[in-house]
Amino acid sequence: MADDQRLDLPPRIGIDRPGSFSRSVFHERHPVLIENLLRDFPYPAHIQARLENLLAETLNGTVPSAVPPGPNTPSWEAQIAGCAGRPWSELPFLWAESYFYRRLLEATEYFEAESPWGGVDLFAPQKHAQLAGEEIRSDLDAYAALAEREPDERRRALLTASLWGNQADLGFRTTSSIAGQSDVIVDDSAAIWDLVDGPGEGPVIVVADNAGRELTADLALIDAILETAHVELHLKPHPYFVSDATGRDLLATLDTLAANPNKPVQGLAERLRDAIRAERLRLRTHGFYVLPSTYRHLPPGLAGDFRAAKLVILKGDLNYRRLVGDREWDAATPFGEVVDYFPGDVAALRTAKSDLAVGIPPKRLSELETGSPDWRVSGTHAMMQVLH
Ligand SMILES: O=P(O)(O)OC[C@H]1O[C@](O)(CO)[C@@H](O)[C@@H]1O
Q1: Element (H, E) at 301
Q2: Is the CB–ligand 1 distance for residue 25 below 6 Å?
Q3: What number of other Cβ atoms are within 10 A of residue 377's Cβ?
Q4: What is the position in ligand 1's atom list of the atom closest to the CA of 316?
Q5: Whole-number Å distance between alpha carbons of 91 and 89
Q6: Ligand 1 neighbour 292 (Cβ under 6 A)
Q7: Number of C-alpha atoms within 13 angstroms, CB side, residue 359?
Q8: N or C: which terminus of the chain carries fewer CB neighbours within 10 A?
Q9: Cβ(240) to ligand 1 under 6 A?
């Protein structure tokens, strides 16, 4: 279980505390997630049984020593060696969740070349439903209307849309519905644009999170960034957490944009496709993005890419957990102090959907704790935090 061993870091968030959000993910959300998979796919009996057994194991069992099939075997071997035989209930939240999703791919034979279920994205039905949905259509109508606005106003709107786009996380919606947008608790947006427009030949790297409404908003933001910088969009190499965006999702999203009746949206699809062909927009992926490690343990190649970038924009809650460390931080701890290890300039854009946060001004923090006690996990509060 590679993670930072520094003794002065707060304890890791676990999944054992009754009443905690992290425990509810395993005990309330995952049973529904498995039920949804059994509803969405006509799995044969052996896959149904594997899914049910996996769920039971996570609720009451221990971690087996076998390494689930798929890429990154050496990393998983090392990770599992540190956890085999331990009850799931004792595992750190980040590790347990990441391993759970890897085991889901095993149960559904995702990596089995000879299986008819091999390569079938188990979350595709939910992703497709969102891409075909009314909410995306109305997002794109709003995008089209932005064409009339002043450049600064457009930029502000696109960054805000990408930030709140993170609410559209289908895993989160498994058991919770998000009740509206409250406020942006920390807003470092000016620093983001300064870095994007600043000197240097390096690309702006956008590390994507969810497909669907979030990726759609991210692509509109990327189009605006392309006016002053090259962009690299980093996607997951294979399905992982519920709606995580892969290359296949990106292509489906471009098709959705191209088929939209609004001319400005069709124009967006065309510019993005041209930018990909011309390699001003590069699509990348990396095995690191589907491991339980934090960003403190970046592989050297990816760390070098981040160092050379103008700015790295990390989207979403899971990336935030991996950046900050999934620990019981005092939320008033300065963001820069916690992430000063990061190899380059970094911006985190997330709606808060898990227990951790840092960089909240103390006065604001006490207002939140009294006025909106569930602000950390409700998805209704957002933050844009920058280290440079
Ligand atoms: O899609 P995001 O923003 O990374 O969020 C994933 C969310 O799913 C969870 O992992 C729970 O399943 C949360 O902890 C996290 O907030």
Answers
A1: helix 300-308
A2: yes
A3: 20
A4: 3
A5: 6
A6: no
A7: 23
A8: C
A9: no
